[in-house]
Design goal:
- The chain has 15 helices and 13 strands.
- It is an alpha/beta fold and 464 residues long.
- It has 2 domains: 55 residues; 321 residues, Aldolase class I (TIM Barrel, Alpha-Beta Barrel), CATH 3.20.20.
- Helix 6 packs across helix 14 and helix 12 crosses helix 14.
- The radius of gyration is 25 Å and the shape is elongated.
- It starts with 8 loop residues before the first helix and ends in a 16-residue tail after the last helix.
- This is FMN-binding glutamate synthase family protein.
- InterPro entries: Aldolase_TIM (IPR013785).
- Keywords: Membrane, Transmembrane, Transmembrane helix.
């Protein structure tokens, strides 16, 4: 017989309440006492509410980074001493257990199910899912690419819906950068250089590169602070540089540096197009609010210089699983940008960058306005694809990354067929639903589509 183990006093209280509730129901049935029936119903509702509250508190506490705080407090100890008392976990807290397992299996080309939700427990607030059709639609091969470039662009680029980016999120070694570029070359996608820039390892990997530059980068300027035209023109004309992404300020001190004025930004955009021979040029925004996105699009229309793409990156957080309010702001910025671009009739594409692992993540971002996605490469490398974990493996990190990208793209095609989508642009936020509480489920269209009276949503927490 299985031995029952009582893990806490709260568990004993819930068991006692359950037994009391059963006793009330049995007594009410025998004596036909309607008052006892009402008491049993009230007690059941109260028990369900308390169980939900204590369950969420327990799982939130379980995911809290106590180990990292303890390590920060004893920072003065040498590393060889701290390792004896505090074991370093194999992976960070960027991903849940389900996400780590999915990443590992797809990187080895093992069979996985098609992900139709955000991998949270079904009854937890924050759980999301997409509505699928009962019948399986066979729509034939789907081209999951998007052409980046407006009428002012002479060399449009066909960008895959899933690429590698955000190299600054986490520590990415030079060997990992080379593996990412190799994977991009093998599976026909792009890799964003990030603040690391065009390193030799990235160039040798052979992948298509999105050159990420900063407006205030002194390495691109002359001693008199003017732009080094010769250097910029030489690098921008390289055949492996397919797109150029301009960051207005450093991500490490966002909001502390002086932001250039609109005239200077759009002048540089025009010059970069000229120096690169007409390649796509866009702007990178880190966790912007809706007002900043709207101001950028209005300024672009007034200046007559149209960006080929706008890259919106999800905010960095010390622990992604504990800071889901940043994700809400990320979604709002995407939805606002797409709505305004459509209202102005602009063909500027939107690129979303963040921790993007599943086909559900891709379709949800496309429904909210994104045309393509860049998955955080640092997170991929730190959660099961790090070279140190592949010393005895026959599969190289580059091949494992390429396997993950190909398998996720194929799963995206299958999920699109389940939803009846022929193109990524057909993804509709009204088909995606989020559980706000135990008794309320609303669509993403209802959450983000109410202009002027946005619905307040409690910050979410990923729960294993």
């Amino acid at each position: 017989m299985k031995n029952f183990r009582f893990r806490s006093g709260i568990g004993l209280v819930f068991i006692a309440l359950f037994i009391l509730n059963i006793g009330l129901v049995v007594t009410a049935v025998i004596t036909t006492n309607y008052l006892l029936i009402a008491m049993a119903i009230v007690l059941s509702c109260a028990q369900f509410y308390l169980h939900d509250r204590f369950g969420r508190s327990y799982r939130t506490l379980k995911n809290y980074p106590f180990r990292q705080h303890l390590k920060d407090w004893f920072y003065f100890l040498p590393e060889r001493v701290s390792r004896r008392f505090m074991k370093t976990p194999r992976t960070n807290t960027e991903l849940t257990e389900k996400e780590c397992l999915l990443l590992a299996r797809r990187s080895k080309s093992a069979e996985t199910i098609v992900v139709e939700d955000n991998l949270l427990p079904e009854n937890d607030p924050g759980f999301e899912y997409v509505r699928t059709n009962p019948a399986f639609f066979s729509l034939g091969p789907l081209d999951l690419t998007v052409n980046i470039g407006t009428a002012q662009c002479l060399q449009t680029y066909s960008l895959s819906v899933l690429n590698f980016g955000a190299l600054d999120r986490g520590r990415v070694a030079n060997e990992s950068v080379h593996a990412l570029s190799q994977a991009a070359y093998m599976c026909g996608c792009a890799v964003n250089s990030g603040e690391k820039g065009l390193t030799p390892e990235m160039v040798r990997g052979g992948g298509d590169i999105v050159w990420h530059i900063s407006y205030n980068d002194l390495a691109l300027r002359n001693p008199d602070r003017s732009f080094n035209v010769t250097l910029l023109q030489t690098i921008a004309a390289k055949p492996y540089v397919k797109m150029i992404e301009l960051r207005l300020y450093s991500t490490q001190v966002a909001g502390q540096e002086k932001t250039p004025n609109e005239w200077a930004v759009f002048t540089l955009i025009s010059k970069l197009r000229l120096w690169s021979g007409g390649k796509p040029v866009g702007i990178h925004l880190l966790n912007p609010d809706k007002e900043l996105v709207g101001h950028l699009i209005r300024s672009m229309d007034q200046a007559g210089v149209y960006l080929d793409f706008i890259s919106i990156e999800e905010s960095w957080a010390a622990n992604r699983l504990m800071h889901k309010d940043a994700e809400q702001r990320f979604f709002e910025a995407l939805f606002t940008a797409k709505t305004m671009l459509r209202s102005y009739g602009l063909t500027t594409k939107l690129i979303a960058t963040g921790v993007i692992l599943t086909e559900y993540d891709i379709l949800r971002l496309c429904a909210l306005g994104a045309d393509a996605c860049f998955s955080a490469a640092g997170t991929l490398m730190e959660n099961g694809l790090h070279p140190q974990q592949l010393i005895r493996r026959l599969i190289s990190p580059g091949i494992r990354l390429a396997n993950f990208q190909r398998n996720t793209i194929e799963a995206t095609r299958v999920l699109m067929q389940h939803c009846g989508y022929e193109h990524l642009s057909e993804a509709d936020p009204a088909d995606f639903f989020r559980r706000l509480s135990a008794f309320e489920i609303v669509s993403l269209q209802d959450i983000f589509g109410q202009t002027g009276q946005e619905r307040y949503v409690t910050p979410l927490v990923y729960l294993n």
